[in-house]
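User: Show me a protein chain along with its predicted structure.
Assistant: Here is one chain, sequence first, then C-alpha cells.
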Amino acid sequence: MQLTNHAENRLPEPAILVFPATHPDGQQYFEIAQEHDDRIVAASSTWDAELSCQMGELLILPYVDEPSFPARFLELVRTRNINRIYSPVAAVYSWLDRFISENKLPIRLVGSSPIKRELVRFDRLMSKVTRSRRFIDECAGGTCDLSDIEIAAVFRMASHIYGESNEHKIAAMMAIFCSAPTGDVIEIGSLVGKSAAVLALLAKRYQTGNVLAIDPWQASAATQHDSPYTVRVGLVAEWDYEMLPQDFAINTLPVGLGSFNYLRQESVTGCALFQKTLSVTNSTFGRVDYQGKIAVMHIDGNHDYAQVKRDCELWLPMMVKGGWLILDDYVWIHGDGPRRVGDTLLEQHARDIERAFVCGKALFIKFN
C-alpha cells in the first residue's frame, strides 16, 4: 500500500495580513504582532526595499480601487490562509470592511477604522480632562485657569514621551504653576524629557521664566547605591548614555526652543556653572539666560539619600518666596532617600511652608 503525501497541499497556519504595511501604524503593528509570535503577512501597494528587508517579505497588492485588486486579494487570502487583517489607512479599511461583508468572507478586521479610533482617542482624552479638572483645582488650592484644551494638550504631549511621571503628578504640576511666582524653572534629572517638556510648556504658558534641565546622562551618576540590585545595576546597564541626551533634545525642542536649555552635568557642577554664568549656550537650543532665582524646582536625579540631600542644599537657597519644590519619588518602593529628605524639610521648615501635599508619588511644597 502506497501512502500519499499531502504536505505540499496543507495550508499554513492562519495569519494576520498587515496592509498597507508601509504605513507607520502598520509597521508598529507588525512589530508588536511579532513580539506576540503571531504569524504575519505584510503587503503594500508601493514597494519599500528597506522595509522588505526588515520584515523579511513585503508582498505587493494593487490599490483597492484598481479592477485587479479583488482577485489578487482573494488569491492572497487563500494561499496565505489569512483570517485577520490590520489596515491602518481609512480608505483601505472601509473598502475591505464592505468587501468582506458583501462576500461573507471568514475574515475579521482587527480593531475599528482609523477614523473611529481617532474619534475614540479624542473622547478618552477629553474624558480624562473632565475627571482631572476637580483634582487639578484641589492641587491648585483654588481654581486653575488652564482651559480644557490646554490640559488635554499637556496630557497628550506627555503621553508620547517615555518616563515614569504618572498622570496624577503631571496634573499636579499643571496646578502649581497657577500660583508660581516668576523666576527660573529648574529640573535635576531629566532622562528623555517627559517632565522637562511639561515644565517647559507650563512655564511658557504662565510666563514663569526660562527652564533649565540638568542631567549628566552617565551610568556612574545614575547608579543608586541605596536601592536593590535591579535598580542599582540592572536598569542602569540597559541605557545607551549617548542616545539619552539626543532623545531628550528631540522631545523637548518643540516646546522649549527660545526659553529652555540643558546642562550635561551632575548637580554639583551644574549648580556652580549656573550660579557663575546665569546663561547656557549650546548648538541645539542656542543661548538662554536665567535670573538666578528659582520659582519651580523639580528634583528627580539620583535617589540616594546623600544625593537628594545635597541637591536640596545646593538649589533650595535660590528659591524665591512662593516658589514650589517638587521632590520626586517621595513614595518609592526602591528606597527611602527622597522621603527622608522630604520629611526633614517638612519638619525643619514648617514655619516657611505655605502648602504641602503628596501626589503621584511626589512631594509638592510651596515655600512662604
